[in-house]
Design brief:
mainly alpha, Serine Threonine Protein Phosphatase 5, Tetratricopeptide repeat, six-stranded mixed β-sheet, 34 helices, 6 strands, elongated, DNA-binding
DNA sequence: TTAGGGTTAG
């Protein structure tokens, strides 16, 4: 697979037929009526040129060698034009440069700057900066003056290896010899600085450019988006005089990537209103934004948009992968599976999204089966995200041994180095399984410094297994990494509370107050069939139906008690008496949302509840038993994952 | 000759 193709790839590979042109070439010279040698030569050059052009779509090294054979046989291996074209084709097809160009350019007697530039550019795209520079040296030795393309290629090479110093040198050299000769040289310069991580330098070039085009703007907008600076991106975008589809797409995907889905949708709508059509990339950004909103209303909208533009998931891998993720996040993992199965071409994004989808719905075995299928039956190579998915699947179901094996195999079998994210999964896996000490030992063996994620996973596990001693170690580190995240302090406070250590609770509360942090109120919400959202807050009895909700809950508690339900008072971390605890429990937001759904939806429909924080143990038991007595399927999404309650049991197998 | 890309854990 070529670099160029793998990026844009969504269509099937077309076989190419070079036989016809080859035959014509063989006949040429024998049957030609041309009188002069130069005429024959010109015809040959044209024919060979079109032969090379046929390779442009897709071809392999063998076909290129075949064509090169024709070139030599027809005596065109000295033609600068033909050889330049051949090298450009090699580059376009991603065929490794070495040892081709050196051998191919050798016979060319009069090498012009375009030939050299094609070679330099080929090495640049390959990321072989040493050869690119060496070729530039050879070119200068022949006293050939570089053209703007040449500098563009050299700057590209610096960008592809992220060599800022070298990039600066070529910037200076370009400027000395050519100045801002063309917009695209400036554009390449901006791209180089962006790739080297120096957005300020890129901005400086932008500001100094005498002339800019929409590409100049889009590059910088995308660069700001990539570093999470959507404010600057938006400012720049608004001052862009003529916005094209790529520029709009940069904004849509930028907002989607920076967890601002609502803004992404707004920009998408604005784009359509201004009469610009979306393409596959824009639609994928739109879908990603809908996925983050996690509501079926948006899922329907995303599907409509994809259909409107004619992008079916079966033929468009980017759309398909985005839809898998979206359906999973909206709670409809079955539909995610349907999309996955309908896709004609699947890549690592499709597999990883599906594996993560299974993982977040507690379907660990399917996640593992898919992973094993992928590595044994397809050519798709797992990447770092794939492993996050598989390890998450293991940790959410307590598959400690499988998780360990996969973690070890990452590097050994697949050459993927474990990152802090993978350690986070492992700490979570061991921690949830109650192996807190082992978890802590694993953190000590890490080759990179553990970050907030790792310590957070350990602290979370300490909450499940009520271990204040290890919690204190984790919290100490975690508070250094994430001093302003209130949830971490609440976690520690709850651990102290469960252990009856009210002094500990008090000290954490003081810390929170000192830092001026505000507690995130718990909230649950459901969306009715009209797309209307109903949000519930703890103990909030202001809802128009609150009397009915309360009555429904009381009745439900009675029915559940027959099945053995006892309020789990340890889920309440306030220092109040037992009656107070019972009252707090029955007014947990997800229970209010459940009662509302029971009152307002038909008996055969699935109930879908969303929550912004982790569900407590009592609510989990409550939902499980409620699914039994009511005969309803309840899907509950908390801040981490989905639980599917059906006939008295949960998809997580009560391990969560 | 230059631009936009979908999946990431506690």
């Amino acid at each position: 697979m070529t670099v160029a193709h793998s990026r844009r790839f969504s269509t099937a590979v077309k076989p190419i037929d070079i036989s016809l042109l080859s035959k014509q070439l063989l006949q040429l010279g024998r049957t030609s009526n041309s009188d002069t040698f130069s005429e024959i030569s010109r015809q040959r050059e044209q024919l060979v040129s079109s032969l090379i052009s046929t390779l442009d779509d897709c071809a392999g090294l063998n076909q290129i060698k075949q064509v090169h054979g024709h070139v030599i046989r027809k005596g065109l291996d000295q033609s600068c034009y033909i050889i330049t074209k051949l090298i450009r084709t090699l580059t376009k097809l991603g065929v490794p440069m070495d040892p081709y160009p050196r051998r191919v350019i050798e016979p060319v007697q009069f090498r012009n700057p375009f030939l050299w530039t094609a070679v330099i550019r080929g090495y640049a795209i390959e990321g072989n900066i040493l050869e690119a520079i060496s070729m530039y040296g050879c070119m200068r030795k022949e006293w050939i003056t570089p053209v703007s393309f040449t500098f563009s290629a050299l700057l590209k090479a610096c960008g592809s290896v992220r060599d800022l110093n070298l990039g600066r040198q070529f910037h200076a050299q370009t400027f000395r010899l050519r100045g801002f000769c063309c917009v695209y040289v400036g554009n390449t310069m901006i791209d180089m600085y962006v790739k080297c991580g120096s957005i300020d330098c890129a901005r400086k070039v932008f500001d100094e450019m005498p002339e800019r085009d929409v590409i100049t703007w889009t590059e910088l907008i995308a660069a700001y988006a990539r570093v999470g600076n959507m404010k600057s991106a938006a400012e720049l975008f608004e001052s862009l005089p003529s916005k094209d589809m790529m520029a709009w797409t940069a904004m849509v995907t930028g907002f989607a990537q920076n967890a601002k889905p609502q803004e992404a949708l707004e920009y998408f709508n604005r784009m359509e209103k201004s009469g610009i059509q979306a393409d596959e990339v824009t639609v994928a950004g739109f879908i990603s934004a809908c996925a983050q909103l996690g509501a079926s209303k948006y899922a329907d909208q995303a599907v409509q948009i994809a259909q409107k533009y004619g992008y079916s998931p079966s033929d468009h891998v980017v759309i398909g992968s985005a839809l898998i993720d979206m359906y999973s996040k909206c709670g409809n993992v079955e539909e995610a599976v349907n999309v996955f199965e309908s896709m004609k071409y699947k890549n690592v994004f499709s597999y990883s999204s599906m594996i993560l989808g299974f993982a977040m719905h507690g379907r660990a075995q399917e996640a593992l089966d898919l992973f094993h299928y992928m590595v044994t039956h397809t050519a798709v190579k797992p990447n770092t995200v794939t492993f996050v998915g598989v390890l998450t699947a293991c940790s959410h179901t307590g598959l400690v041994d499988q998780g360990r094996q996969i973690f070890a195999s990452m590097h050994q079998m697949f050459g993927v180095e474990p990152t802090r994210d993978h350690y986070t999964c492992m700490v979570d896996l061991l921690g949830r399984a109650g192996r807190l000490q082992e978890s802590l030992e694993l953190i000590k063996t890490m080759s990179v410094e553990p970050h907030g994620g790792v310590w957070g996973a350990l602290l979370g596990a300490c909450r499940i297994h009520n271990n204040p001693d290890i919690a204190e170690i984790a919290a100490k580190h975690l508070f250094e990494w994430e001093p302003d995240i209130i949830g971490n302090y609440i976690l520690l406070s709850n651990i102290y509370a469960s252990a009856g250590d009210w002094d500990g609770v008090l000290s954490v509360r003081k810390l929170i107050k000192k830092k001026g942090l505000k507690k995130t109120p718990a909230a649950s919400w459901v969306v009715d069939k009209n797309g209307q959202m109903h949000k519930f807050f703890p103990g909030n009895m202001n809802h128009p139906m609150s009397n009915k909700i309360q009555k429904t809950l009381e009745e439900l508690v009675e029915r559940l008690t027959v099945l053995g339900y006892k309020p789990d008072l340890s889920s309440v971390t306030y220092d109040v008496n037992d009656d107070g605890k019972r009252l707090i429990l029955i007014r947990h937001t997800e229970k209010l949302a459940l009662a509302f759904s029971l009152l307002t939806t038909s008996r055969d429909s699935t109930i879908m509840i969303m929550k912004n924080l982790r569900m407590c143990q009592d609510c989990h038991t409550f939902m499980r038993l409620a699914s039994e007595v009511t005969g309803r399927v309840i899907i509950m999404r908390d801040n981490m994952r989905f639980h599917h309650f059906r006939s008295g049991s949960c998809s997580c197998g009560d391990f969560w």
